[in-house]
């Protein structure tokens, strides 16, 4: 039986390591259920995205999930049918004036906080690096916005709501009128494995 290595970055409530050191989350549940139905054994790795991406590029990981599809990545990897849509939001420091559009956020040399090597879609990816500050994790990004070290950042709304259940980020507000959907996929180094996965993914929907 083939043994697979499957990776993702920590993104609660979709995939994360709980206080008992167990991997859990809704996207993890979906992917692990499909892998089980396919008849494979798998080890799952949850680490920051830069490490997961490097291992996947080096073919140390067979599958990564909750991934944004881009033309560049499609030349290198095989993508599943859509896993789900994610609602992506702009969060902003409460003391920051909002001008009503993405361009207006860059007044006074403000920088946009993003996760290093993430792909968010054309709206965000087209913004130059000179207007961005890169973070290793969503926790680092949110803390920086909350502490007013950066004026605003890009977050998954589900992740933000999960992490902020106790209102620990009380200096942050979400710009709801700037929310947009971001389709997410599962990526493979093996086309045959991708094709098999798609069959079971369609059955789960």
Question: Could you explain how this protein is built, in words?
Answer:
The protein is an alpha/beta fold and 205 residues long. It is 29% helix and 28% strand. The protein has seven helices and twelve strands. The protein has helices at residues 26-38, 49-57, 71-74, 122-125, 138-146, 157-163, 191-204, and strands at residues 3-8, 16-17, 23-24, 41-46, 63-67, 78-79, 84-93, 112-115, 132-135, 152-156, 172-174, 180-188. The strands form two sheets. Strands 1, 4, 5, 6, 7, 8, 9, 10, 11 and 12 form a ten-stranded mixed sheet that branches. The chain has a two-stranded antiparallel ribbon with strand order 2-3. Helix 1 packs across helix 7. The longest helix is centred in the last third of the chain and has 14 residues, at 191-204. The chain is globular and about 55 Å long. The relative contact order is 0.21. The model has no long low-confidence stretch (mean pLDDT 91).
